[in-house]
Amino acid sequence: MPIVVTLTPNPAVDISTSVDRVEPVRKLRCSGESRDPGGGGINVARVASRLGARAIAIYPAGGFTGQRLESLVQGEGVESLVVPIQGETREDLTVLDETTHEEYRFVLPGPHLRDVEWMACLKVLAEMELKPDFICASGSLPPGAPEDFYARVAEIAEIRGVRFALDTSGPALKAALRDRVHLIKPNLAELRELVAGALDEDRSLIGACRALIAQGRTEVVALTLGAQGALLVVADAAWRARPLPIRPLSTVGAGDSFLGAMVWALASKLRLEEAFRYGAAAGAAALLAPGTDLCGAANVRRFLPQIEIERIDEPSVAA
Ligand SMILES: Nc1ncnc2c1ncn2[C@@H]1O[C@H](COP(=O)(O)OP(=O)(O)OP(=O)(O)O)[C@@H](O)[C@H]1O
Ligand SMILES: [Mg+2]
Question: Does residue 133 carry a catalytic annotation?
Fold first, then answer.
């Protein structure tokens, strides 16, 4: 059983519900509610576990919501290595407007982490006895954590000799790439924050990913493009995964499902292209999961053979 360890510095309990129509002033009486453990790394661990990995999630937790988070994570079959904190773990809210079928996602900043608290998260990763097959860190940074938090994670992964995947955005992503990571999974907006210039067709997108690889920041870029599918770029090759024509029930969690499946596949020693296929199948499967729920393993396996991965021919540099 492959071992996947994830780190989530800013986890949350994700509440999802629906309402006939989102409007100001009027009381919006919601119907139904579900609570899922969330935050990027926890979601990746949930997906890896569903696909058959031993998944261990490292995260800070505090207060009543922190306790609830821990029991929700446990309920998913994911092992927790919790760093207790003084602050209260956050809750996020996703509301489906039943008239427009649009989802509104309210995301709170999260509790302030004290220096000893974020350092303790890194220490757990650095000192865990078990050697993971893959480390994945994902999500925003909470107030108090230094901008280079993920660069420190990359350093630990490097020292431990374990491949490291990162999914975050903005300054946290930029700062992380000071140290080389194995894989990043930006979406288009996140890539735009890293690389200047027009990014429209495959050629310029691949060029932008290559620039990051050439600078030694990452070895692999899995660029997800929502309804346009995804691109996989390494130094000397690139592939495209065509999206499946699915009418989404919810697109929330598609990115985390994509990465969770890819990480599971890489930890299972599957080839990179095959891992990419798993990612695309999981992204598609996530569209069938309501609210903040993630892809189901049965749907991932069902979609897998339907995913077309096409190698992109590029003019060779020497030619
Ligand atoms: N509307 C859609 N139609 C078809 N496939 C989709 C759609 N939305 C997402 N996907 C699939 O899921 C993958 C990941 O989605 P996306 O690029 O939206 O990730 P993201 O922006 O990181 O999402 P998140 O909001 O979860 O962070 C895509 O590469 C694609 O395979
Ligand atoms: Mg994302």
Answer: no
For residue range 135-179, list pLDDT tens digits in order.
Answer: 999 999 999 999 999 999 999 999 999 999 999 999 999 999 988
Q: How many CB atoms lie within 10 A of CB 310?
A: 11
* Domain spans of the chain, in order of start: 3-21+32-311
Atom nearest to 256 CA in ligand 1? 26
168 C-alpha vs ligand 2 centroid, how far in Å?
A: 7
DSSP state of 86: S
Q: What average pLDDT does the chain have? A: 95
Q: Which of 16, 136, 223, 251 has most ligand 1 atoms within 8 Å of its beta carbon, as the pocket-test mutant?
A: 251
Which residue's alpha carbon is at the smallest distance from atom 11 of ligand 1? 283
pLDDT tens digits along 166-178? 999 999 999 999 8
pLDDT in tens, 269-316: 999 999 999 999 999 999 998 878 899 999 999 999 999 999 998 765
β-bridge partners, 79: 56
pLDDT at 250 over 90: no
Q: Which residues contact 208 (CB under 8 A, 6 or more apart)?
A: 191, 194, 195, 197, 199
Which residue among the candidates 92, 148, 256, 293 is catalytic per the annotation?
A: 256
Choice from 136, 184, 187, 221 to test ligand 1 binding pocket (greatest atom count within 8 A of CB): 187
What DSSP assignment string belongs to 227-269? GG-EEEEETTEEEEEPPP----S--TTHHHHHHHHHHHHHHTT
- CATH topology for 3-21+32-311 is UDP-N-acetylmuramoyl-L-alanine:D-glutamate ligase (3.40.1190)
Q: Cβ < 6 Å from ligand 1: which residues?
A: 187, 224-227, 229-230, 243, 246, 248, 251, 253-256, 258, 280, 283-284, 287
Distance between CA 30 and CA 96 in Å, rounded?
Answer: 9
